[in-house]
Amino acid sequence: MKLILYSKPGCHLCEGLQEKLEQMQTLKLNLEIRDITTREDWFEAYQYEIPVLCQQLSEGEKPLPRFSPRTSVTKLEQMLQKYLAP
To answer: By its UniProt entry, which InterPro entries does this protein fall under (predicted)?
Structure first.
C-alpha cells in the first residue's frame, strides 16, 4: 500500500503524523514524503492544508480524510484500514 504525505520542514503536525505512520505494526505501508516547498504546484495546492495524506492508486491519488493530531497510532491504523481502497 503506497501513501503520500504532503508536508513541509518544521511542521510539527506533519512530523507527528509521519512518526505515527512509521510506528504502525499491522499495515505495511510504502510512505513517500513530499515536501511542498520543492514544487510550486504542491505548495499552491496544500500550503494551508498540510499534513495531507493520499493513497497512490493506478488512476492517481486519492486524498484521505484528515486525522486529528491527537489520534493514537492504534486508532490511526484502524481508520486507515477503513479508508484505504483494496
So the answer is: Glutaredoxin-like (IPR008554), Glutaredoxin-like_YDR286C (IPR052565), Thioredoxin-like_sf (IPR036249)
